[in-house]
C-alpha cells in the first residue's frame, strides 16, 4: 500500500487513526498497541502476504537475542558471551539480507569469473528488508551496550513495524520511539499535532505526485529508453533524476513525519535541504540523516573512526561508503557510487586539513555537480546507461538548439550546431527546462518543510494552502507510482 494511493488516504489511514484513539479513549492501552501492530502488518502485507513470515521471523529472532543481551550473563546467556551472541545476531541478520538482496548478484559474478552457469534464484526482494534489518541490528548493538530495556514482544513489534517508517525509514532507535508510545498524553488526540501532520503530509504528497513524478518521465526516457542523447538531453536527464530523487525522498519523509504526528509520534528529521550543501560532508549531514547516523555509529566508529591516524581514517571512510553503496542495491553501479562518495569525503577531509577554503558559491557548485554526476551511477541499471548519459553530458559534438532560435542564431550552423527538437529523445519540451529552473529555486531558496511545520500558524491562508496541495495531488493520483527508496 502506497502513501500516495486512494486506499491509503481514504480508507486505511482514517480507519487506523480513529480505531487506535477509540481504543485508547476506552483505556484499552494494550489493545490499541496490538491494533496498531496489526494495522502495520496489514499495511506491509498489502504488497505481498508472502513477505509477512519473513518480517515476523526476523522480529522474533531479534527480540530473543536482544532480550538475552540485555540480561545478566548468568541469567540468560549460560555458556555464551555477550559478544558471541551479538556477533551471531548481526551475522544472522546480514545473512538474511544477503540471501534475498545479493544472492543473484553474487551468482552472476561467479558465472562471469568462472565461465560456470549456476542458475539464478530470481528471488523477490522482501519489501523494506534493508530498513528493518538495519533498525534491528542497531537494536542489538544498543542492547549489548545496555541502552535498551525492552522485554515486551508487543512493544518491540510496535517499534519495528510502526507503519509510517516501516517501508523506507527513517531508521530509528528504540530509545527515541518507545518512550513516546509510553507517554499517557500521547494516547489522546492532539489537535495541533493533527493539524501539523496534515500540513506536512500534504506538502509531501504534492512533492511526490506533482513534482517528482513529472521529473520521473524525463529521467526514465533518458536512462532506460533513449539510445542516444544530445548535450541538452543528457543534462536534462541527469538533472531530472537528481530532482526526482530529491522530491521523491523529501516527499516520502514529509509524509512519514506527518502520518506519525497524527498518532502523536515525532520521527527524527531525515532530510534537511541537502542540495544547499557546500561540501560533501555537509551533504551527508543533510541527506538521509538517519542512514548517515547508522553508518557513522555502527560502521565508521567501530572501524576506528578518526582515532587511529589519517591513513586509517581515509580507509574507514572508503569502507563505510562502499558498504553504504552496497546497502542501496546489488550492483556494481551502486558500489561505484559509494566509492565516489568515499573518495569525495577523503578529498574533503584532506582539503580541510590543509586549511584551504573556497568561495561559498564555488563550493556549492562543485558539491552539487559532483552529487548530480554521482547520481547517474546510482540511477543507471547498467554501466552502458551511465556511460551513455555521462559521455553525452561531457561532449560538445552533438548540440541541438531549440528550433525557434534558428532565425536569430542561423550563423551557428557553420559551427556544427543544429536546430530542432532539442529534447525529443526524452519526450521533453520547453517546459522541461522551466521545471528544472523552478526546482532549483525551490531547493535553494526555500526553507526545509519541517522548518515551516514548526513555525506554522493555522489560519485561513494555511487552510487554503493545504487544501490546494491536497486537491491538486489527489487529482494527480491517476497513475500511482512507488517511492524510489522502496526499491532499497
Give an account of the 3D structure.
There is one protein chain. The protein contains 20 helices and 2 strands. The protein folds into 2 domains: about 10-190, no CATH class; about 210-255 and about 270-455, no CATH class. The chain starts with 5 loop residues before the first helix and ends in a 13-residue tail after the last helix. By secondary structure, the chain is mostly helical. The mean pLDDT is about 90. The chain has a two-stranded parallel ribbon with strand order 1-2. The chain is globular.
Mass-distribution shape: globular
Please identify the structural class as seen in this structure.
mainly alpha
Mean pLDDT level: 89
Number of domains: 2
Biggest sheet layout: 2 strands, parallel
Radius of gyration: 24 Å
Q: Percent of residues in beta strands?
A: under 5%
Order of helices and strands: HHHHHHHHHHHHHHHHHEEHHH
Number of helices: 20
Give the % helix.
55-70%
Number of strands: 2
Membrane topology: Multi-pass membrane protein
Keywords: Acyltransferase, Cell membrane, Membrane, Transferase, Transmembrane, Transmembrane helix
GO molecular function, one term: acyltransferase activity
Pfam families: MBOAT
Q: Which SSEs are present, and which pair or pack?
A:
Elements: H1 6-25, H2 29-45, H3 52-69, H4 73-77, H5 82-114, H6 129-144, H7 153-161, H8 163-166, H9 174-182, H10 191-225, H11 231-262, H12 280-286, H13 289-300, H14 310-328, H15 332-353, H16 360-379, H17 383-393, E1 400-402, E2 418-420, H18 430-445, H19 449-455, H20 460-475
Parallel strand pairs: 1-2
